[in-house]
Amino acid sequence: MQLQDFDPEQLDPGVAFRRRGFVGVMVLLVLAPAVALMADLHLRTGYDGWKLAHLAIFTVLFGLLAFGALQALLGFMLSRQGGDACRISTSVDWAEDRAPVRARTAVVMPICHEDAARVMAGVRVIYESLEADGRLPDFDFFVLSDSTDPNCWVAEEVAWAALVRELGATGRIFYRKRRVNTNKKAGNLADFCRRWGSHYRYMVVLDADSIMTGGAIVSLARLMERNPGVGLIQAIPRLVNGETVFARLQQFASRLYGPVFTAGINYWQLGEANYWGHNAIIRVAPFMRHCALPELPGAGPFGGRIMSHDYVEAALMRRAGWQVWLAADVEGSFEECPANLIDFAKRDRRWLQGNLQHARLVVAPGFHPVSRLHFALGIVSYLASPLWLAFLVLSTAIVWRYKATGLTPLPVDSFAEQLSWRFQTEAVLLLGLTLGLLFLPKILALLDLRSRPAEVAAFGGWSRLVGGILLETVLFTLLAPVLMLFHTKFILLTLLRRSVGWKTQRRGRDGASGWQESVSTHAGHTALGVIWLALAWWISPMLAAWMSPILAGFILSIPVSYFTGCIAPGLALKRAHFFATPEESDPPEELVRLEEHLSGRNRGAAPLPAEDAGLLEAVTDPYVNAIHLSQLRAKDDPLPANEVRFAVLRERLLREGPAALTSRDKLALMLDADSMSRLHRTLWAAPEAELAVGWRRALERHAADAMTR
Fold first, then answer.
1. What does the alpha-carbon distance between residue 222 and residue 46 come to, in Å, rounded to a whole number?
2. In sequence order, which ranges of 46-93 are alpha helices (DSSP H)?
3. How far from the centroid of its chain's Cα atoms is residue 134's Cα?
4. CA 259/CA 75 separation, integer angstroms
5. SS3 of residue 407 by DSSP
6. pLDDT per position as a tens digit, 411-462
7. What sign has the CA pseudo-torsion 369, 370, 374, 380?
8. Would you say residue 620 has pLDDT above 90?
9. Is residue 79 classed as helix, strand or coil in its secondary structure?
10. Once rounded to an integer, what is the mean pLDDT over residues 498-509?
11. Could you tell me if 192 and 109 are in contact, meaning their C-beta atoms sit under 8 angstroms apart?
């Protein structure tokens, strides 16, 4: 990063207007000939309602394709010129400006039913990285839990206490478990801001699988200090630690094509960028003042509390006059990704429903036009799937109707008398234009790497790099149609007002594919592919050949989904340096330390804890009980009726065991400090004959563990 004397707050609005106008004009220039070709193809066989709908859908889909390819082209051209002059990173002289960042900053990690060991290992790595850079005194860490499963809850508390003890981080790393989990992650952050936000100028928001180097966090804080009119800066998280074929495929593609895309995105977004919910720094005061999420009118899934909060928070920040930037070239931001296609689709369903809610906000008053565009693009990114499916269905129907009539294309000139193109010529040109736009980002990414031989070597060399692109193209060609079916189904369920829960993403080896899950999930996709292929072949072998890449994705969905989600072939590719990335070939120290902290356990292979193990441990073990009590708030004036209820529940719990209580009652006891203290004392003082069998076994296990320590 080099200083180019750029001040985001002094950016001429005309620059943004001209850039966005240029992008729009270029998209139209690419779109127009394609639409003209498709329109002329239909003209040769006569227009009707089917073909008008087909042309309209084609226009939308091709426009999205052209927009994406153009962003890659712009990013490549900017890279060849040494980078965009209008980047927020150029507002700081990184070589000269080494003054300490004295602004108090909170590093916050909202979690819910995550692997406690992985969460605390990530916090440890970031903490140690800041400490090694000498920047630790200005940063505090908050693990903000919404877990309601007692096993997860207690595991988090114990892992947090161990981490604080090992690092000597008392008063530096905090853990908080919310009593009421209102509005999920957005509510979790809002609760943090209400309680502690006034103590901090900035907060760095992470996900449970996020890793950021100390240098990256300090760089973001320095950018905020240099630009007091900026409210939010989003770093680009690179995908790492993938072990399945699917995960390695994602991290390879995003790492290879990402730089040209993000440079192109920054070209037109400038100070109206978006927020992705994590790996970003936020100015706390305006966030608290302006970014409280409204509750949408009506019931779910379109009404109620906003699910995809990040887009809305960025738009609210911009509406209040604060800039939002994408820091495309700040290094040291990482995250993990879903390990298989099914988990990827489950995550997309949550995002899809949240994005569809934004339809109400596209026309809401006060938002910046680019914020409205972000809402619209987020919606269209998922609506593209049912549009694509409709395009394929219409294509099949049009060919069937054409064959049924026995007509041939009209022998008329195209566009003008000077262009006497045949029907087949136009079809081939249209196919070539489409494939050209699809492959353009891949070609540009390779061209962009020519000037960086060290990075080429980190990808495994030219042979593995090109081979990886070819294999990635084949696999994504097979996977994309299945995702199209998933998204179409999810949109239909949303329109039928079938809401989706916000379940925890399976991470690492826990997310490896299972054969039974693959069969049950994709059986319908396979049947649809077989039937559609037979129908297409009956209509026209040429139609079947044209649709074969898509129908192959349907038919092969079970083995492809299972294979790409397996660990063994992914590790084989890793040993062969296939789908390698620079972060894997030469990992940063933080990723190395994370792997070292996690290498002592077989990730994903440990058996699930027994039911009620967390409750048993929190009541039985004096150390765990003390940690748990330290996190609870004693009631100032308890209600007599509640005290009677808790007394009955405590007695029943000890005499009959945890199975005698409902999950709600067990959770209520764990949230009550007096009950947890009384349960612990009573358990250790009571005769064994008065205790349920489960408690006697828990005491025996504790005694055995104490003997081995």
1. 63
2. 49-80
3. 31
4. 7
5. coil
6. 555 554 455 666 667 778 888 899 999 999 999 999 999 989 999 999 999 9
7. positive
8. yes
9. helix
10. 56
11. no
Q: What is the pLDDT of residue 325?
A: 96
Cβ neighbours around 471 below 10 Å, total? 17
Q: Tens of pLDDT along 109-151? A: 999 999 999 999 999 999 999 999 888 989 999 999 999 888 9
Residue pair 231/323 in contact (Cβ under 8 Å)? The answer is yes
Which stretches of 459-506 are DSSP H helices? 461-495
pLDDT tens digits, 366-388: 999 999 999 999 999 999 999 99
pLDDT for 514-528, tens place per residue?
Answer: 888 899 999 999 999
For the four alpha carbons of 354, 360, 363 and 364, in that order, the dihedral sign comes to negative
Tokens of 486: 């998933």
Q: How far apart are CA 502 and CA 309, in angstroms?
A: 13
Alpha-carbon distance values, 294 to 185, 307, 309, 368 (Å): 15, 11, 10, 17
Burial 284-321 (b: 16+ CB within 10 A, else e): bebbeebbebeebeeebbbeebbbbbbbbbbbbbbbee
559: tokens are 């083995």
* Tokens at 391, concatenated: 């395009």
Question: 9 near 227, Cβ under 8 Å?
Answer: yes
Residue located via tokens 């997310």 = 511
Q: What confidence tier does 273 reach under pLDDT thresholds 50, 70, 90? A: very high
Convert 343-367 to b/e letters by CB count within 10 Å (16 or more is b).
Answer: bbbbebbbbbbbbbbbebbeebeeb
**Furthest CA-CA distance within the chain:** 102
pLDDT at residue 640, rounded to an integer: 79
What single DSSP character describes residue 323?
E
Number of alpha helices (DSSP H) and beta strands (DSSP E) in the chain:
26, 12
CA distance 279 to 262: 15
Per-residue HEC secondary structure of 81-105 comes to: CCCCCCCHHHHCCCCCCCCCCCCCE
575, pLDDT greater than 80: yes
pLDDT at residue 688 above 90? Answer: no
